[in-house]
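Dear Dr. V.,

Thank you for agreeing to look over these. As mentioned in my earlier message, I'm a first-year student in the group and I'm still getting used to reading structure tokens, so any feedback on how I've presented them would be very welcome. I ran two proteins. I've put each sequence directly above its structure. The first is here:
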Amino acid sequence: MTAILVVLTAVLALTACNGSENVVATAPGAVQTPGAAQRLLSGQGTHTLSGTVTAGGVPVAGAGVAELQTVFGDDCFTPRELSSTTTEAGGAYVLPGVLDSSTSAWASWMRASKPGYFTEFQRPRVSQDMRLDFVLDPWTYIPVGTLARGVVDAGDAQCRGNSYGLPGFCDRFALMVPASGTLAVTLTWAASRPDVVLDVVRPAGNPCALFSWPGATRHHLDVAVDAGSTYEIRVVDDGRASPFAYELRTELR
């Protein structure tokens, strides 16, 4: 795990709250398919995905699993769920009707999420019924108003998103905002390099990402936030040219 140096630049009294809930389920959750009409019109075949969601080797009940619609050229949006379900008591899920992506320009975009854990995205090529497991990690909090210095390196967690489909090593932080307003997130790094991603995942697993091109040494995102909600910040080395040293600042306005 990468060592992170966190410097407090503003002090706010925060109550640790991971938003987790106790869920008792005895059967896989009902499957929602708002994209059914689109499937019929597109003529794409569909397949069934199944698997488990775990955290620390323990099944996670009540986690949401969804197939999302990839949107080219737009990385700060609320993704449309093409189908979704929830895990049962043993952490298992079954999601039928996932679109075939074997010949499409984009791999399928899958998401597993539950309050208290970092959202996990995967980008499988779906050409048949298949197993897809998710492993969730618990939130690691930083307070609003911190300066975090870190290094993303090989062996860290791997992140995937909407357009950055290849897995990139990443550092992840959870931040609970004490008041509504605008969360200003600034990521800086010393040397010009491409393939650096700043991704703020809003509640319900909705990402908002920025990508770097040659010549860039800074990202900045302003995200509208609601009091008491938790937002995930992901610093991603999408080019896998690790190690990648950075500074991350947050401010609530």
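The second protein is here, in the same arrangement:
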Amino acid sequence: MCDKLRELPVDVETDEAGNQWATLPGRSETSVLIGGHLDSVPNGGWLDGSLNLLAGLEILRRLALEGTPELTIRLVDWADEEGSFGHSLLGSSAASGHLDMERARGLVWGDGQGLVEVLASNGVTLEAMPDSARQLAHAAAYLELHIEQGPVLETLGLPLAVVLGTFAVERHAVRFRGQAAHAGSTPMDQRQDAFAAAARLALEVRRSAVTHGGVGTVGRVVTEPGIATAVVGGCQLTVDQRHVEANGVAAMLDEVKRASAVIAGEERVSVEWERLWSIHPIGFDADLIGLAEMAVREVAGTAYLMSSGPVHDAAEIARAGVPSVMLFVQSLRGLSHTKEEDTRVEDIELSVRALDRLTALTIETCRATGGGSGSV
């Protein structure tokens, strides 16, 4: 990515949160931001989210060849979008002013490394991260392209969609503590099996999501002592719950928390909950949604509108008051966060063309309305 940026007349910098910015200066300091991320989940795919940045880079290239743009165009690679420590959108939440510093300071990964320690090893100081908010000072709009990561567009036979907003999310670490004991000599009715409690809770997460029309996932489970010949004395799992409405995810969380207390009592173990991260549902800017519809119709013939279950950096930038919108491109078989993630080449081309057209429409609208920082 850095090598490709060197080919363009852009200024490149890394801010206090580790976000990397490439700026193509325009006739006005008012800026249109195009954003994405390069980090991935372990064994992730090739498009989430490098598509966002490579598409944005080609738009920078096109604009640079045409001369000085009317507005300043900025491409941003947000740091740790995927949330290595359970806190998604780390870099963009720092810029938006919504990074919970106390919670971030206490985040520790399974191997014992703390977030503060890992940040420092990469030249980032936690206390300085909120200073990255200065990067949004002259932003009139934020645009992001992403693969859908789900099966809706493929089911409908459509290549592209305009994203209306993102789901509410509650993400917690849940710890059950029982008693380790020998697997051969401990009768079943006398066990304090922390994993048995965790397994029952995982099914409750699933049942609650189905009941309330949301989604719920237990994505990580760690047992102690973690050997074949011992009853599990301790078990930690992550619970990720999402819903299009805030009261929906709140109902799911309350239901599963109450269930965990009942399960703990029946299994004779203790249970503790720790919030890792949460975000309210976010609606994107109505004017930009209209421009995105126009852009998608121009390149694909029809514009489908949908909400996003996955969260994206665009949600944090919208929370900061910058008008924001997203485009989705179809994911084959709805797969993402896996090596099987893929999208047809012709659909990728359409998505880049749609983002390019949306950028042009956004610039034209800002010029026509005299739009300044924080307005389309």
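From my reading of the second output: The chain has two domains: 2-166+281-369, 168-279. Residues 221 and 237 are 4 Å apart (CA to CA). Does that match how you would interpret it?

Kind regards,
E.
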